[in-house]
């Protein structure tokens, strides 16, 4: 007998039925799972939301729990985030957002977070919170309209990290060559870390360091981080990189000789036509 997935219909009173920032998170995490990028509890997302917007749907004076951070983030003091929960399955986001998502606020001193909504059943924010928070800090310095940090296990990106050299310039150039739009979508190129233990403050620091120059960072044999000013932008960035990696894997797997490619001059022409500044040291 086929097991039926029960979708609990939200009632009009449910915050997640009304708040656009929660709907967006539910829909994007579910989409990522459907794409095969978030098996089991893989992946995590955090999204900065304005206080005024949160206050329209949630009583921001009511604190459910306060959790101490092992890494202080005074730069993010009093900021509100929607976050995915630690150990939670993206597959279940649409059916049960209150257990799988949370709305949190960083305290005035940056040493703790207040849980204001969701993360029911004593759940806590994503295990990759250090990478998320530290990346937010760096991206906000580069772009005050930055809002989203998104991590997933994009399949072809992971595959490519086994067979392509892990130097940032070479890897970026290969991706740019795979689809014409790539250079336009990520002219700032891809940051790549060495393999590291996930969930740690160390990988958080290393990821954030790369975020000073790039909006996307690859963790070899693990996955990708993408950032943006909106959920669509962060998702679109990862989607484009994953598509390029897929083309690369298809070409390599085809065992056919490469007969033609986008040339260096064509990439230069493309950057000029679209007014983007390509990551230095690749096309010159
Ligand atoms: O558990 O993807 O990197 C979620 C993860 C950890
Ligand atoms: Zn991961």
Gist?
This protein has 284 residues and is of the alpha+beta class. The chain is built from 11 helices and 9 strands.
Descriptive notes:
The chain is an alpha+beta fold and 284 residues long. It has two domains: 1-127, 3-Layer(aba) Sandwich (L-fuculose-1-phosphate Aldolase); 128-284, Class II aldolase/adducin N-terminal domain (L-fuculose-1-phosphate Aldolase), CATH 3.40.225. The protein is 39% helix and 16% strand. It has eleven helices and nine strands. It has helices at residues 15-18, 20-34, 51-55, 97-100, 129-142, 155-163, 168-178, 182-185, 201-211, 231-254, 264-274; strands at 44-49, 65-68, 80-84, 101-106, 112-118, 148-152, 190-192, 216-219, 223-228. The chain has a nine-stranded mixed β-sheet, sandwiched between helices. Strand 7, helix 9 (201-211) and strand 8 form a beta-alpha-beta unit. The longest helix is centred in the last third of the chain and has 24 residues, at 231-254. The radius of gyration is 20 Å and the shape is globular. The protein starts with 14 loop residues before the first helix and ends in a 10-residue tail after the last helix. The mean pLDDT is 96. The protein binds Dihydroxyacetone and zinc ion (ZN). Dihydroxyacetone binds at residues 41-44, 127-128, 151, 198.
List keywords for this structure.
binds zinc ion; 9-stranded mixed β-sheet; single chain; alpha+beta; 2 domains; globular; 284 residues; L-fuculose-1-phosphate Aldolase; binds Dihydroxyacetone; 39% helix
């Amino acid at each position: 007998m086929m097991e039926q997935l029960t979708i609990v219909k939200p009632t009009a009173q449910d915050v997640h039925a009304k708040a656009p920032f929660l709907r967006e998170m539910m829909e994007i995490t579910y989409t990522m799972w459907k794409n095969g990028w978030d098996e089991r509890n893989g992946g995590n997302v955090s999204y900065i939301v304005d206080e005024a917007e949160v206050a329209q749907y949630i009583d921001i004076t009511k604190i459910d729990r306060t959790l101490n951070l092992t890494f202080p983030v005074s730069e993010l003091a009093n900021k509100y985030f929607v976050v995915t929960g630690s150990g939670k399955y993206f597959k279940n986001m649409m059916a049960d957002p209150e257990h799988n998502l949370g709305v949190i606020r960083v305290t005035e001193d940056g040493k703790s977070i207040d849980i204001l909504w969701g993360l029911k059943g004593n759940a806590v924010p994503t295990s990759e919170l250090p990478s998320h928070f530290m990346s937010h800090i760096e991206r906000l310095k580069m772009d005050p309209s930055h809002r989203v940090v998104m991590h997933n296990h994009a399949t072809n990106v992971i595959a490519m990290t086994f067979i392509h050299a892990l130097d940032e310039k070479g890897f970026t150039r290969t991706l740019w060559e795979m689809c014409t739009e790539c250079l336009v979508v990520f002219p700032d190129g891809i940051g790549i870390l060495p393999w590291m233990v996930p969930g740690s403050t160390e990988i958080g620091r290393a990821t954030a360091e790369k975020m000073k120059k790039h909006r996307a960072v690859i963790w070899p044999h693990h996955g990708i981080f993408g950032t943006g000013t909106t959920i669509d932008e962060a998702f679109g960035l990862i989607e484009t990189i994953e598509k390029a990696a897929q083309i690369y894997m298809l070409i390599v797997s085809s065992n056919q000789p490469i007969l033609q490619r986008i040339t260096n001059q064509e990439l230069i022409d493309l950057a000029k036509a679209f007014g983007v500044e390509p990551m230095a040291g690749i096309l010159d």
